[in-house]
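Instructor's aside before we start: the two examples that follow are unrelated to each other. I chose them only because their records fit on one page, so don't look for a connection. First example below.
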Amino acid sequence: MNRIRLSDRTMKRSNADFSLTFREKLDIAKLLDQLQIDVIELDGIESKKRDSLLIRSVSSSVKNSVVAVPVELSNESVDLVWNALREAACPRLQVVAPTSTVQMEYLCHKKPEAMLAAIEQTVAYCKTFTENVEFIAEDATRSDEDFLLRAIRRAIGAGATTVTVCDDAGNMLFDEFGAFTEKLKSTLPELDGVCLGISCCNQLAMADACSVAAAQKGAGELKTAACSGNTASLLSVAKILFARTDSVGSSGLRLTELQRTVNRICDICRTERSGGSPFDDGVRGKEAAALPVLTALDDRTRVEEAVRALGYSLSEEDISKVFSSFERIAGKKEKVDERELE
């Protein structure tokens, strides 16, 4: 029986149907970790302070799952991400690179040989920090076949332990994607010692079927989401694996617990938000009433409890800075509300 790993991408920015606050992302990560999902995916670092803090907080909270974060094709990006991710129990660095001509030249401004060199160098540099390195070939289904094979070989040669190919256009039928996966496996003997991952866009509502078809042909990791219309459904794919373990493989997840967890995550993602919050995409009105209101009489311990209630996991040094700022504000006004503490 094949063991199929499931990776959750609910918290990625590509999910345009909803936005999540810092605390909501942390709550979702904890729920997925309790479920013992194989991989929890986060976004890379765009805002150094905000995104690094989220990665550090999730890394310190997640005990069972791999925490995966993408890097850009540079040593500086790898250093920045690793500094935030290094405390994770199971960290993974993801080297993401487009392999289709149009995306390579017009989005990354790189010629094929330069792209191959950048992939190889970045994967090798990631490998100096962690054994768990994933190469993600974006737009793989529209790539020149020879170049895609060369890119995968270079990534594996540099130390990638997972290689993921993406159907970003989402226009393949399940039998076509199964054949695409089967051809990769038969053409690349290098994949025998590496986990082949699959990422399917749901443009034609075929992401679930394409992912399962790929698993039937040897893919070992499927990218899904507990709540998203853009990729394969975590719940649907897990149900198919449970029902057809004989011909596809098993995820190892318990369906009753999975259903309950997915429902909770979807509630977090789909609840209406208030429109007036200026930070982190808004806060639900029903939660706002429960958020802490502090006064000048509150000590450091109380402020630290309020910070944790907002979802932040800060170092002693950062807590000291927050408390100093709190004292300055509390000395000027009667109450310090959640928005100011944020």
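Example two begins here.
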Amino acid sequence: MRFRHGLLGTAVCLIGTAIFSLGTALPVTALAQAGATPAGASGTTYVVTYLETLPARSEDAAAVLRKYRQASAASVGNLRSVLLERLDRRGQFVVLTAWQDPSGWTSHLAGERTVALRKQLADLRSAPIDDRVNVSLSMGPMALPRNAGAVFAVTHVDVVPTAKDEAASAMQQLGEAGRKATGNLHFEVTQQASHPNHFSVVEAWASQAALDAHTSSASQVAFRDRLGPMAGALYDERLYKVLD
């Protein structure tokens, strides 16, 4: 059974260098380090940014996040910027960005506009922002669909460090099978640059029924069976919609 409702703090191991605390005013140099990719990383950089805000202030947070999405899209080196809102939990969002290289992401993170917008969220947050900085593992097209009624699944997968290579192989096969599944609109798998035993899966499906059918497929069941002995945390899948 897929895990869909666990809190981020208990379902995943938060990475210290990937967390920006909105409750503390940080200088630009510190902001550039938060969520930055390690020295030596290169190539297209994929960032999954989790945001948890006060449920009663979710509309206010969405307004700020729309501005953040626009600022990201306008940043040098940005390849995409998409804002998702969780379907079953008010106040939880994900921003999916991609960058030509790690320097584009770190420059954006330290930029005046980014710093200002993240500070605006300070009174709205219920948890720190969690930036997961990843590299490609199994990719389809860069663009994310905006089909009416599309359901997005964003999953953080954590395996024990000694199993990272076997897990990477399983995750690649997951991506290949997912893109061929009926009703799939997008399926990508990325690997965390600083912690290669952590992975992010971004899926888009034409409907909830299509996602449910994939969940029940033989290939998905086989993948979960293979992943189980390697898992370092619960399979943290969350469902979203695009927020325009």
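The helical segments are 8-11, 28-33, 58-74, 102-110, 112-120, 164-180, 208-215, 218-227.
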